[in-house]
Amino acid sequence: MTAERPTLSKSERAYRFIREGIDEGRFVPGYRLVLGQIAGELDISVVPVREAIRRLEAEGLVTFERNVGAQVALLQETEYLFTMQTLALVEGAATSMSAAYLTEDHLARAHEINERMRRTLEDFDPHAFTALNLEFHAVLFEECPNPHVLDLVHRGWSRLNALRDSTFSFVPGRARESVAEHDGILELIVAGAQPLEIEIAARDHRTATLDAMLAYQADHKPPSAAPLSSSSSSTTHRRNHS
Predict the structure, then answer these.
(1) Same fold, 10-72 and 77-233
(2) Which range is least confidently modeled, 35-39, 149-153, 177-181, 214-218?
(3) Distances (CA, A) of 29 to 15, 22, 71, 78, 157
(4) Where are the alpha helices (DSSP H) in the chain?
(5) Looking at beta carbons, which pairs linking 127-134 to residues 24 or more positions away fall under 8 Å?
(6) What pLDDT, in 10s, does the model give residues 143-156?
(7) Domain ranges of the chain
(8) Sign for the pseudo-dihedral over CA of 165, 169, 171, 176
């Protein structure tokens, strides 16, 4: 005899509904969660929805501000900061180590992907742009002969994807700069630049996106909250290789 599944409480139903919306990207960071609307969709009262919101707030997935209400939490700044700083270091190293192993076919593919990224700027789709961005960088770092460094790069990208589906959703202006910086990195590789110069260019490219995202966060944060600074704790060099 099969045991019957326990009936979920209304609060648990509301929690799962909102949590799935966040996990699946239907409720993006900054999305306002209207309690009455959610209650109506689930055919329950507002009370269990409010309980679910409190639970999600305790988990750091939702924030609640007076006169604003509940909204999906913006980026967890420290996690994003540390992930991007680490990825900047290891991806920069992997890209420089890969450079000597990149063939004309690799470089042609990277150019083609970057041109596709450039074309998407006219009718911008941040999620498609992000997918192409990973595809572009993978061409440049996947030939890294050091498997340990390459593993760290893969872990960094996986962690980044878990933290933020698409940074470019929030700072779309960064996309055009990113494409131009890709051109600069490719030019260095084609010209046979020194590995350190390629590494710094790739590293600065990553930290420029970090700076743009943290600036966005600072602009969308209550005045009482102090923003993090990538420059205050980053060990990266800042040079312009666009």
Answers:
(1) no
(2) 214-218
(3) 17, 8, 8, 16, 19
(4) 10-23, 35-42, 46-58, 77-98, 104-120, 126-141, 147-163, 173-190, 195-219, 230-233
(5) 127/165, 127/166, 127/169, 129/166, 129/168, 129/175, 130/165, 130/166, 130/167, 130/168, 133/168, 133/178
(6) 999 999 999 999 89
(7) 10-72, 77-233
(8) positive
Both tokens assigned to 111? 């150019």
CB 51 within 8 A of CB 11: yes
pLDDT: which is higher, 63 or 136: 136
- Please give the Cα distance from 100 to 44 (Å, whole number): 62
Q: Is 67 left (phi over 0), alpha (psi -120 to 50) or beta?
A: left
Class in CATH terms, 10-72: mainly alpha
Cα separation, 93 vs 202, in Å, equals: 8
Query: Is residue 80 a contact partner of residue 166, using CB atoms and an 8 Å limit?
Result: no
Q: Could you give the CA distance from residue 22 to residue 57 in angstroms, rounded to a whole number?
A: 13
Strand order in the sheet with 32-33: 32-33, 69-72, 62-65
The CA–CA distances, whole Å, from 16 to 40, 55, 57, 65 equal: 15, 11, 14, 22
Find out if CATH 1.20.120.530 is the number for domain 77-233: yes
Q: Which amino acid is located at 195 in the chain?
A: P
Give the side-chain half-sphere CA count within 13 A for 145. 6
**Is 72 in a helix, a strand, or coil?**
strand
